[in-house]
Amino acid sequence: MANPPNVVLILADDMGFSDIGCYGSEIETPHIDRLAAGGVRFSQFYNTARCSPSRASLLTGLHPHQTGIGILTKDDRPHGYPGSLNDRCITVAEILSAAGYATSLVGKWHLASNIRQANAAWPTRRGFDHFYGTLAGSCSYFQPASLTRGESNAEAEATARRDYYYTDAISQEACAFVREKSQREQPFFMYVAYTAPHWPLQATEEDIAKFHGRYDEGWDVLRERRMQRLAESGLLADAVKECERDPDEPAWAQAEHKAWEARRMEVYAAQLHRMDQGIGHIIATLEETGQLENTLLLFMSDNGACAEVLPLDGSAEAFKKRRPDLERLKPRNGVELQVGNEPAIVPGPEDTYASYGRAWANLSNTPFRLYKRWTHEGGISTPLIVHWPAGGLDTGAIVRAPSQLTDVLPTILEATQVPYPQHFKDRQFPPSGGHSFLPALRGEPAVDHTLFWEHTGNAAVRRGHWKLVREYPKPWELYDMDTDRAEMTNLAAVSPDIVNALVAEWEAWAKRVGVVPWDDVLAGYRAEGKNETEAAG
Predict the structure, then answer these.
(1) pLDDT digits (tens, 9 = 90+) for 397-455
(2) Separation between Cα atoms, residue 489 and residue 519, nearest integer Å
(3) Has 89 been annotated as catalytic?
(4) What would be the CATH architecture of the domain defined by 6-308+355-536?
(5) Separation CA 268–CA 273 (nearest Å)
(6) pTM given for the model
(7) Residue in 31, 110, 130, 435 annotated catalytic
(8) How is 30-65 classified by DSSP, letter by letter?
């Protein structure tokens, strides 16, 4: 290939389907929206419902169970997954590096059970020449734990600066990599994995102030407005006719502590806004260095919005003890760290550690139901924006064909004309189960293929317009995605033949990719005197 494209893969963390402007949000995201206007949006792109499994699937083109990461990064052997990227998969960074690309990861890794000693599951051992970011999952935005440069701890870089903010640091490091590699005649692959807008709710007061009063009308009004913008955008076609509040959450009129509730969403919006500003800097750097035209840039989220309440299980003190990074975290203003979702803790500053709750997550996932960890649409539906000016894309189009994370690696390889290897460094691995969606980006028919999911017993299969989905331990439900993406009308009872056929397909897939039955994982934990919450991570 005479002039192979650069590839920039940008991943948001715990961002809901309608949280960005071009997908219906009231949060201004002008730089992401610019990519959408000059590129292609997907209306039915899917992740795997949780952070680590999504990252494993995104980077390898395999289902997460095949990579060793079926839940999170805890080693659950012998009754579960090892929790680290295994040697029976190959990453896109390894493939492109071998083909002559410079490679970089800036941001969150979360694919290794051991984050203290360098090992085969670290990014530097899986194809990334350059790494600056965090090895663990969630962390403080002002003093991120497990911050690493190369294979050396870099936490002191954050504590030494009064103005350090992790989202900004990710963006700045990404821009520096682009500037450095643009001086050489070498294509680059850069994976930018933000932690925004994952909890904790932490942002600068300057950014929070931009959203002051924005959420005073509450989640009901704002959800209806998002739904209206989504309908006007054409993203949902005629697949959603209703937009109902989560029945477990109160109407805004009955909500207590409204000012505190509004503040929670203001901070969340500020975190997203800051990420968008950083993406703007990356775009500007690509432009200034003459790289934007021939850069394949993809933006998406690792799962749907997060309804988790902090502390996750038990008291704040117990939560801190299970999180050594919180035990040693000393806010620079000298105030003791406050953990929890209660009105006495006003989120935003670095001495707070809170989340925004289920009702606001319901807004983030408009118009879908359920959340991160579930395989209903609210857990697995993500925006996907693809921008590549020199790539012959159908600019401004909406791709409606269903695709999922396993399809990203084949798409990148087709765009770069790099073949998928049959073996690598004496490692054997299965072929990617995904299909390139590059033809669909260019206005051609997409490959029709069946999609599968499983996470902590929650499961789904999608074939054509039919989606079969199960919320563990409940029965299977069946929905027609052409008319009911909000999953309101369960057709399982009236279409048993379709249910049985899809169940058989799902079971064959689960056996092929090595899904460990959730009942077996739970049994192993219970034998150790542990509960389901601990098993789920």
Answers:
(1) 999 999 999 999 999 999 999 999 988 988 889 998 899 999 999 999 988 899 999 99
(2) 28
(3) no
(4) 3-Layer(aba) Sandwich (3.40)
(5) 9
(6) 0.97
(7) 110
(8) HHHHHHHHTSEEEEEEE--SSHHHHHHHHHHSS-HH
The dihedral over CA atoms of 395, 48, 476, 376, expressed in degrees to the nearest 10, equals -60
CA atoms of 216 and 3, how far apart (whole Å): 51
Say how far apart CA 411 and CA 388 lie, in whole Å: 13
Left if phi > 0, otherwise alpha if psi is -120 to 50, otherwise beta: which for 529?
left
| Residue 289 token pair | 């260095």
Instruction: List the structure tokens of 212.
Output: 């002051």
Give the closest residue to 16 by CA, choosing from 347, 278, 368: 368
Q: Is 7 exposed, middle or buried (0-12, 13-18, 19+ CB in 10 A)?
A: buried
79 is catalytic: no
d(CA 61, CA 299): 17
Number of residues that this document lists for the chain: 537
Position 18 scores a pLDDT of 98
DSSP secondary structure string, 219-238?
HHHHHHHHHHHHHHHTTTTT
Nearest to 119 by CA among 166, 83, 66: 83
Domain map (residue ranges) of the chain: 6-308+355-536
Contact 294, 285 (CB under 8 A): no
Please tell me the predicted confidence (pLDDT) of residue 1. Answer: 61
Question: What DSSP designation does 480 have?
Answer: E
Separation between Cα atoms, residue 288 and residue 275, nearest integer Å: 20
Dihedral pair phi/psi, residue 79, rounded to 5°: -100, 15
Residue in the structure block whose two tokens are 């929790």: 83
Segments of the chain with pLDDT less than 50 = none
State how far the alpha carbon of 451 is from the alpha carbons of 362, 364, 469, in Å.
24, 24, 12
Which of 22, 31, 51, 435 does the annotation list as catalytic?
51
Q: Percent helix, strand, coil in the chain (nearest 5)?
A: 35, 15, 50
Residue 362: predicted pLDDT: 98
Cα 226 to Cα 184: distance, rounded to the nearest angstrom? 44
Q: What is the pLDDT of residue 311?
A: 87
Instruction: List the structure tokens of 90.
Output: 């190959």
Distance between CA 268 and CA 201 in Å, rounded? 6
Instruction: Check: CB of residue 22 under 8 Å from CB of residue 33.
Output: yes
